[in-house]
Model the fold of this input.
Amino acid sequence: MDFSWTEEELRLRQGAREFASARLAEGVPQRDRDSTFSRELWNACAEFGLQGLLTADASNGGGANLLSAVAILEGIGYGARDNGLVFSVVAHAASCVEPLATFGSEAQRREWLPRLADGTLIGATGITEPDSGSSALTLATTAVQDGAEWVLNGSKTFVTNAPVADLFVLYARSGQGFGGLSCFVVPRETAGLTIGPPVEKMGLRTSPMALIYLDDCRVPSSSLVGGIGWGAMIFSRTMEVERLLVMAPAIGVMERLLEGCVLHARQRTPGGTPIGKYQAIAHRIADMELQLEGARLLLYRAAWQRAHRGAATRESALAKLAVSEAYVELCRSAMQIYGGYGYTAEYEIERQLRDALAATLYVGTSEIQRNLVAGLRGLG
Ligand SMILES: Cc1cc2nc3c(=O)[nH]c(=O)nc-3n(C[C@H](O)[C@H](O)[C@H](O)COP(=O)(O)OP(=O)(O)OC[C@H]3O[C@@H](n4cnc5c(N)ncnc54)[C@H](O)[C@@H]3O)c2cc1C
Done:
């Protein structure tokens, strides 16, 4: 067993930290207040190579293995204070670029991947619907074949990036049961595709979100990703990677918050005593360290498993569950340690907590991760 990163992975993580601290950490409170998605910072991330992180089709780098990608995103999370922007970039890379790179036809890869990977195009994915939610595979949007076209009808909710996206990876029902879902790639300008107004959110406010509506939306047969009925398989395979990529920045955020808490515990001296002298605070910090390191190990192990052994369903569900729950707990502890200051918008703790709360919901809630793990034991 070897727990060390390679020199190259450490270099990548450090480079990402420096890029994110220098480019993505300014002006976040204002953008958060205004719910502003910054195209300029999106472009900066693209120049750094984040949007095409995993795909060998990226002209500016790309083709990183999953462990390197985790190292890079951890560094990004540490340096960037803009969790919403990072979430948008990862959603694009993991749920739009990744399935097209893995399951797309030669023509689809040629047409879309270079521009998705270099950030020219923004991608989004829609599986969640108002009436299916956690039971994603029971979705009702229909895909009906009509000659050389598919006709899509239905709606998708909570679609990250929808207000600004150029391309949508959408899942629809083309038949009955598990094998009855298919996956399509649909450009924004397609007739019959409508984007709703931006949804206002509690956190991750710099990441735009909207509902989308499909009303006799006709796409050519060449829009089908993989084969007819591949939707559930593409979705499950994609989710395995997305769970890891989306949680990697949280490890970096947690590390930076923990360092801030240690400093604050030393420097804050109400009544003359540094609060870190109180066992209640010191133990809370030890517990934060425990939460972070436990979550970190599960995430690294799942990424290793997926990179070296292929499937990592159980490992990625455990990692998603552990990191997201640790993230929320750690932010709550940081709030307690900063006291009233943490509750003010002047410090970043209240924003971090608002952003963190989404992590136990997106890419499958904590309950759904538990269902997955228990299901593999034949339970539930
Ligand atoms: C910030 C953010 C970004 C998102 N981005 C996207 C996106 O880009 N594309 C997309 O398609 N979706 C996206 N989603 C949607 C997300 O995947 C769903 O919110 C999530 O799957 C839960 O569905 P729901 O909100 O309808 O909750 P529900 O399914 O209504 O669940 C409500 C509660 O019931 C629990 N529950 C439901 N079913 C079960 C069960 N079988 N066993 C135990 N408990 C259960 C849930 O865990 C939860 O606690 C995003 C969500 C958020 C918050």
Q: What stands out?
A: The pocket of flavin-adenine dinucleotide is lined by residues 91, 125-128, 133-134, 156, 158-160, 204, 358, 361-362, 364-365, 367-368, 371 (CB under 6 Å). Strands lie at 123-126, 142-146, 149-160, 167-173, 181-187, 193-195, 209-220, 224-225. Residues 53 and 69 are 7 Å apart (CA to CA). Residues 231-267 form the longest helix (37 residues).
